[in-house]
Amino acid sequence: MKKVIWTDTAKNHISLIWDFIAADSIFYANKVTDEIIEAAERLSIFNRMGRTVPEINKENVREIFYASYRIMYEIRPEAIYITQIIHGAMNFKG
C-alpha cells in the first residue's frame, strides 16, 4: 500500500470544483468533491488501475475518472502523487 499525496495544484483544483458546484448546491459540491477524493485515495491500493494519460504517454503518469473529471496522478517509488483534477471537456496539453 502506497501513501497518496495531493499536490498543491490538485488541492487547488478540488477547491475550485467545490466552489463552482457550490454556487448551485453545497450538498452536491460536498458529494462530488468527497467522491473525487475517495476515488483518488483508492489508488493507495490499486495504483495501476488507471490508464496512462494519452497526452503525456508515460507509464507512471496515469488517470482515473470520476463522473466528468480526470484525476491525474504520478506513481513514484515512495508514493502516489495526485497532480491535477480537470474536467473532461477541458483541453489538456500535458
Please specify the SSE layout and strand pairing.
Layout: E1 3-6, H1 8-22, H2 26-41, E2 51-52, E3 61-66, E4 69-75, E5 79-87
Parallel strand pairs: 1-5
Antiparallel strand pairs: 2-3, 3-4, 4-5
Under CATH at level 1, the class stands as Alpha Beta
* Unreliable runs: none
Q: What profile does the largest beta sheet have?
A: 5 strands, mixed
Q: Tell me the number of structural domains.
A: 1
Q: At the fourth CATH level, what is the homologous superfamily?
A: RelE-like
Radius of gyration: 13 Å
Number of strands: 5
Strand content: 25-35%
Quick rundown:
With 94 residues, this protein is an alpha+beta fold. The protein contains two helices and five strands; from the N terminus they run E-H-H-E-E-E-E.
Summarize the structure in words:
- This protein is an alpha+beta fold and 94 residues long.
- It has one domain: YaeB-like fold (2-Layer Sandwich), CATH 3.30.2310.20.
- The protein contains two helices and five strands.
- It has a five-stranded mixed sheet.
- Helix 1 (8-22) runs antiparallel to helix 2 (26-41).
- The radius of gyration is 13 Å and the shape is globular.
- The chain starts with a strand and ends in a 7-residue tail after the last strand.
- The mean pLDDT is 94.
Task: Name some characteristics of this structure.
94 residues, alpha+beta, YaeB-like fold, five-stranded mixed β-sheet
